[in-house]
Amino acid sequence: MAIEVRIPTILRTYTDGQKAVEGTGDTLAELFADLETRHAGIQARIVDNGELRRFVNVYLNDEDVRFLEGINTKVADGDNVTILPAVAGGMA
Amino acid sequence: MRYDSPLAAVGNTPLVCLPRLSPSADVRIWAKLEDRNPTGSVKDRPALHMIEQAEKDGRLTPGCTILEPTSGNTGISLAMAAKLKGYRMVCVMPENTSQERRDLLGMWGAEIISSPAAGGSNTAVRVAKELSAEHPDWVMLYQYGNPDNAGAHYATTGPEILADLPSITHFVAGLGTTGTLMGVGRYLRENKPDVKIVAAEPRYDDLVYGLRNLDEGFVPELYDASVLTTRFSVGSADAVTRTRELLQQEGIFAGVSTGAALHAAIGVGNKAVKAGEPADIAFVVADGGWKYLSTGVYTAATTEEAIETLQGQLWA
């Protein structure tokens, strides 16, 4: 088993158009480094100076990792990671 | 229960356990049935409270026109209260919201001004602010920034939930104006410091993001991130799946944004099971499914078809 990572349209140029790819690692930082070995260039679009980029949201099993431990959030096989450009919404 | 008028019957809604959707015997999920309010949504609480506070302050006087940006429920609640209290009601609503919502608003006598689909609720807010500047005599209660929105939940929803569920560990609600989460969140924190406050945010697919990519990021003035413990982002597929599970397994017919809140409630529930901790998780059923029947998500033969029918539509 591995960790499934859902890729937003804007980053699919790095994944040959794939909507989801798989990776491994104990933390998000390790997972993104692992993705970089197969999808060169993607890491720099997500990570900046060892932190998540400001306008990128990352969700672990749908939970915003900024409310967990950010890029150091622990991940495990079977988890689902979603990367999204930050957009505010309304629900009223 | 007996009340002196329909408006007096806002609130005091049931809190029901969902035995089939609860992850385990000691990790239980509870639904706060806000569809049982007079116009069928949680928005009756802030709408009535905002009107009554504005009357007390003297901002709203007989014959006034109320203006509000809304994708539906707040407008419907305000329109009903405005009708009974003798105010004119004007709603600004994105043009791509369902026909049922337009019909309901019209039924209670509200006038609708459509805002462009691009930008969704954010554009409706901008258009309403422009109209407000053009018509200084109109009263915009402005649910996104009016402390009486959160105040309604602080005064009523929060105390009701704590009285019914003193063992509450998590409160989950949709994140829109943020009024429910801010109001209930603050009340629960003051009375139960360890409680976790969990937001469920709608996550739209690429097609809807396309519609919304003109957005400036809009953060409601009421929003205070420090009230939240965590935040879930729920995609259309999960929101639809949970909405249908709620109907099929527990018999509750709720709107699609409720499915998103349930998804987050089950998410924190599964984490509690993994951690071996008991939990009592209350989440808000914001409205019933009636207004969304025309989307086809309830009548589709399979969940896959239901998800397909919702592609490209705003559901919260």
From TrEMBL, chain A:
InterPro entries (alphabetical): Beta-grasp_dom_sf, Mopterin_synth/thiamin_S_b, Sulfur_Carrier/Prot_Modifier, ThiS/MoaD-like
CDD domains cross-referenced by the UniProt entry: Ubl_CysO_like
Domain of life of the source: Bacteria
Pfam family, one: ThiS
Protein's name in the database: MoaD/ThiS family protein
Automatic annotation (TrEMBL), chain B:
Keywords: Amino-acid biosynthesis, Cysteine biosynthesis, Pyridoxal phosphate, Transferase
Coiled coil ranges: none
Obligatory cofactor(s): pyridoxal 5'-phosphate
Domain of life: Bacteria
CDD domains: CBS_like
Domain Tryptophan synthase beta chain-like PALP: 9-286
Protein family membership: Belongs to the cysteine synthase/cystathionine beta-synthase family.
Family matches, as PANTHER family: CYSTATHIONINE BETA-SYNTHASE
Protein name in UniProt: Cysteine synthase
Organism: Streptomyces cylindrosporus
